[in-house]
Design brief:
The complex is a heterodimer of chains A (about 300) and B (about 400). By secondary structure, chain A is α/β, with parallel strands linked by helices. Chain A contains ten helices and 14 strands. Chain A has a seven-stranded mixed beta sheet. A seven-stranded mixed beta sheet of chain A has the order 9-8-11-10-12-13-14, sandwiched between helices. Chain B folds into three domains: about 160 residues, D-amino Acid Aminotransferase, Chain A, domain 1, CATH 3.30.470; about 70 residues, 2-Layer Sandwich (Dna Ligase, domain 1), CATH 3.30.1490; about 160 residues, Succinyl-CoA synthetase domains (Rossmann fold, 3-Layer(aba) Sandwich). Chain B has 15 helices and 15 strands. In chain B, strands 5, 6, 7, 8, 9 and 10 form a six-stranded antiparallel beta sheet that branches. In chain B, strands 1-4-2-3 form a four-stranded antiparallel beta sheet. Classes of the chains: A alpha/beta (about 300), B alpha+beta (about 400).
């Protein structure tokens, strides 16, 4: 099995006629994903790689003749909130927001509306999610042949604040013979639709997943939230974490942002050192080196290297 | 984006929160006039974007307009933590009965703004929260629905504040929460919020920060109300020559994104690395293995040859840089061959041998075979995904340290 996506998952791409969106559509179709429509206001009647383009989400739903499961939103920051509202209020339950540089207030509004309507947001500022050999929703892993090289099916669930590192880590798990159940690029912003702790129940319920790997960075309280979740829920899943950006703990780096919008140390609790201590106190193994991940996961799973 | 106190007070005032009749002045004469208009004892406060004004002598009291002008002259010349003041604020010396704290911040876990209130104002709220947790009231507000006064009242009442104080403080906190949301703030605080001897509440000092991503849509407040210039430069530190040069190269070409920072980096190994998470991982990997990065950088979004070349050149021309390491996590959008051509071009244009200058090239992914062919031609050591980011960083460090020491 997998989380959030199956072979049958249908989705649309909002902003489908944009340059990046056209590539993303090609990649997902090649991977076998079911894209049932695209939306760009004013472009109704066109096609992108055979996918029909509509002016509104409602038109796409009507054309499909059944509820649509998901949407990948890749429109400019000023229009993203409206696009996400449109998706949610047309019955879409899984929204991947690719766009970056969206003000926090807008993201928080999207999340609140999603909560009220039983929808889930992944991102913003993310590459989406992938279930190896089943479905890819977003630019994650790149073209289908590259995605196939980095992502083989297996027992490890991956969650990462960095899109690129999602693929780097998954590729190392694939190379080591382990493979991935579902990999989610959760986004690099200060406020995101789905945090590690919020996705854990899905992995917990997924029989294929036997272990979790997370990629984390300084900034925010997402790791503390995960540590609390693990303590409170007696999870069956061993978690291996990698923390990047330890150099940001240096005095002269204080208040500076590196990598992602959310990667800025604003308080004592969100330094790398503090986060590592919290994760470890919850029994989560934090590896020092990125290349230790597959070995430590194997140890945790009792698989001999 | 941080605001000066005089701007933060204006923001508070625009939201309908009472403030004292203050004046923002840039000369001693203006300060004298402001003090005359206020009539009575005043306080002169340095307008700098840094803490510790009081300790540094940036806040002084004056009984007469002459004294106000003298203090203003001194404070206007006083540098605090490396910052020269924008001006001074001349404020009536308030008759304070009690100091409170009112603030709003983001709660990233709840994904909602969080109101904070304390009856122990005038000191750091984190300190109060630690030592007197029962004196800090909290309450989340919605991002979608109007913010009702009662939510502010509830937060305040948990601290034990009641009577007319509760009724006076409630609209202040509710309005602060509304201005936080409407103006895309990441921090809005009034500290102290003062109850004067006549029972009225005024904001005596305010601290505001706006989210950088929202600056573009807050033009009405920034330009019209606060009259902040488009090119106003109030960064917490000055950009270095390297940082400015990289930003200029990035701006000159829309394809791809490059960023460079060298604030706090002084080593001999130049880093041409990417992208967001990959750069953080690689910088740590270099440092953990004893390497000394000369800079931090990010490549992403498939930059042109010119852009990759420009970044590599800037890094190579930094003082003390002996070699560069060109490394990224697996790429799917950025093309390996284009980055390879860019960094080789940078070496050649500076009269350097690419094989000697590039300590390691580790970018696996899109168009890697084409890229590796070019690198091989110039004798550059490269590797694919079978060599981890940690190991690649280690090879670069070993090479730069082995220089001269190798047998």
């Amino acid at each position: 099995m997998s989380i959030l996506l199956t072979k049958e998952t249908t989705f649309i791409v909002q902003g489908i006629t944009g340059r990046e969106a056209v590539n993303l559509t090609r990649e997902c179709l090649d991977y076998g994903s079911k894209i049932v429509g695209g939306v760009t206001p004013g472009r109704k009647g066109r096609e992108v790689h055979g996918v029909p383009v509509f002016d509104t989400v409602a038109q796409a739903v009507e054309h499909h003749g059944a509820p649509i499961d998901g949407s990948v939103v890749t429109v400019p920051p000023a229009f993203t909130k409206d696009a996400v509202f449109e998706a949610i209020l047309n019955g879409i339950k899984l929204v991947v927001v690719v766009t970056e540089r969206i003000p926090r207030g807008d993201v928080a509004q999207m999340v609140e509306l999603a909560d009220m309507n039983g929808a889930r947001i992944i991102g913003p500022n993310c590459l989406g999610l992938i279930v190896p050999e089943v479905c890819k929703m977003g630019g994650i892993g790149g073209p289908a042949k590259d995605a196939a090289k980095a992502y083989a099916p297996g027992p490890v669930g991956v969650m990462s604040r960095s899109g690129g590192m999602t693929t780097e880590i998954s590729s190392s798990l694939t190379q080591s013979g382990l493979g991935v159940s579902t990999a989610v690029s959760i986004g690099g912003d200060a406020i995101i639709g789905s945090t590690y702790a919020e996705l854990m129940p899905y992995f917990e319920a997924d029989e294929q997943t036997k272990a979790i790997v997370i990629y984390t960075e300084p900034g925010g309280r997402m790791e503390a939230q995960l540590a609390e979740w693990v303590k409170d829920n007696n999870s069956r899943l061993p978690i291996v974490a990698f923390m990047a950006g330890k150099f940001m703990d240096d005095e002269e780096m204080k208040g500076m942002s590196f990598g992602h919008a959310g990667t800025i140390v604003e308080g004592k609790e969100d330094t790398a050192t503090e986060k590592i201590a919290r994760l470890e106190a919850a029994g989560i193994r934090v590896v020092e080196r990125i290349d230790e991940i597959p070995t430590v996961v194997k140890e945790k799973l009792g698989v001999l290297a | 984006m941080r605001f000066f106190e005089f701007e933060a007070r204006k923001i508070v005032e625009l939201a309908g929160i009472p403030v004292t009749k203050y004046g923002f002045c840039t000369t001693p004469e203006e300060a004298r006039a402001a003090a005359e208009e206020i009539g009575g004892p005043v306080v002169i406060k340095s307008q700098v974007l840094t803490g510790g004004r009081m300790k540094a002598g940036g806040v002084k009291f004056a009984d007469t307009p002459e004294e106000a002008a003298e203090h203003a002259e001194a404070i206007l010349r006083l540098e605090i933590n490396g910052h020269m003041p924008r001006g001074v604020l001349v404020d009536p010396k308030a008759e304070v009965k009690q100091e409170y704290y009112a603030g709003v911040v983001w709660d990233g876990t709840a994904k909602r703004p969080l109101m904070l209130f304390s009856d122990m104002g005038g000191i750091d709220i984190e300190e109060v929260a630690r030592t007197h947790p029962d004196h800090v009231g909290r309450g989340h507000v919605s991002n979608l629905f109007p913010i009702p006064d009662f939510e502010a009242k509830q937060a305040i009442a948990t601290t034990g504040v009641t009577g007319s104080q509760l009724n006076r403080a409630t609209p202040v906190l509710a309005r602060l929460a509304r201005l936080f949301r409407e103006n895309d703030m990441t921090l809005a605080e009034i500290n102290p919020l003062a109850e004067l001897t006549d029972g009225s509440f005024v904001a005596l000092d305010a601290h505001m920060e706006m989210e950088n991503e929202a600056v573009g849509r807050q033009k009405k407040l920034l330009r019209k109300e606060l009259r902040i210039a488009e090119d106003d430069d109030r960064e917490p530190y000055e950009h270095s020559k390297f940082e400015e040069a990289v930003a200029a190269i990035d701006a000159a070409d829309h394809r791809g994104v490059i960023q460079g920072k060298d604030h706090g980096f002084t080593g001999n190994l130049g880093l041409v690395i990417g992208a967001g998470g990959g750069s953080l991982t690689l910088t740590d990997a270099v440092r953990s293995q004893g390497g000394k990065p000369a800079n931090y950088s990010e490549i992403g979004g498939n930059p042109s040859v010119a852009k990759a070349c420009g970044l590599a050149k800037e890094v190579l021309e930094k003082d003390g840089v002996e070699k560069i390491a060109v490394m990224m996590s697996i790429v799917s959008n950025t093309r390996v061959d284009i980055v390879a051509r860019g960094v080789i071009k940078a070496c050649l244009e500076l009269g350097k041998d690419p094989g000697e200058t590039i300590a390691i090239f580790r970018i696996p992914g899109a168009w890697e075979d084409e890229g590796f062919k070019i690198l091989a031609r110039y004798g550059v050591e490269y590797c694919d995904r079978s060599v981890s980011m940690w190991e690649a960083a280690g090879r670069a460090v070993a090479k730069i340290q082995g220089e001269g020491a190798a047998a």
